Amino acid sequence: MIDLLPYQQSIENALTNIPFSSQPSNLYDPLNYFLKIGGKRMRPILALMACEMFGQKYEQALNAAIAVEIFHNFSLIHDDIMDKAPLRRGQETVHKKWNDNIAILSGDVLLVKAYQEIEKYEAETALALLKIFNRTAVEVCEGQQYDMDFETEQYVSVEQYIEMIKNKTAVLLGCSLEMGSIVAGATIDDYQNIYEFGVNLGIAFQLQDDLLDVYGDQSKFGKQIAGDIIANKKTFLWLTALKDASAEQKLELNSLLKETNPSTKIDGVIAIYNQLQIKEKTQKKMHQYYHAALENINRISVSEAAKKPLLSLGEFLMQRDH
To answer: 29-35: long-range contacts (C-beta < 8 A, 24 or more apart)?
Structure first.
């Protein structure tokens, strides 16, 4: 597995040195607090790795990487308000620690800071970065809206769900990789392929998350197993089960939506999942997207040695058990 520590340290140093004002404190203190909560920093790492893959020093893409990470954190602050989430990464969310209005305004400032990182590049590069960044920002908002809509819609297709996770999660991975490639001076064909690599890998990653929620090892996963089942979330597993279920199984699944005993609910849903081989069907779909990602990266016109770090990272992500 590639050593990600140098990338992570560069990103953390850059985030620490963002020049926030000190006043008004209720605007800027929440941002310093939230950025210090941490996270895997996977999105900005992808931008740095893409730049390096095309033969440039990864530090050249640091401002683009920070723009992506800042945007991601802006979206998390606002998502937490919408979800009324009390915790993020084990710490109080901004709206919980301060209030909703402060969280909204602080998030808005964070979005502007992302644009300020992009404007540090030369005009031609900055314009190319803005095009993919703006398109992705809109898609992420669309994905979040679809996710909220799905909570109340009676019927959601598997295809609609895939489109939702593509917009909400996967396009930002593709954007990170493409921005790193643009900074490095890659060709249009190459940075389009690396974008698709990120999108397909992101969809595979989210399908794996759905799978681990039900079949993962609770001691490693870090959150309650089958939380999606308890919350009646329309995941790939649930939607595939509804699509493939017999009339009798559909009745049972719909009845389990109203079950108030968590253990009974989880056991009942998983029993039907097992009857319908939902675990295997999810793994198959996940691997389809992962192999599509491999086809994308194979089309990129750099050496196999240059591709190896990103390929190793993709393989690591697909083999995780938590």
So the answer is: 30/77, 30/94, 30/97, 30/98, 30/102, 30/103, 30/106, 31/106, 31/109, 31/110, 33/94, 33/97, 34/73, 34/76, 34/77, 34/88, 34/94, 34/106, 35/73
pTM score, two decimals? 0.94
- pLDDT tens-place string over residues 215-253: 987 665 445 678 899 989 999 999 999 999 999 999 999
Burial class (CB in 10 A: 0-12, 13-18, 19+), 284: exposed
Q: Residue 87: beta bridge partners?
A: 92
- What is d(CA 313, CA 289) in angstroms, rounded to the nearest whole number? 15
Distance CA 293, CA 231 (A): 31
The structure tokens 């769900």 sit at: 161
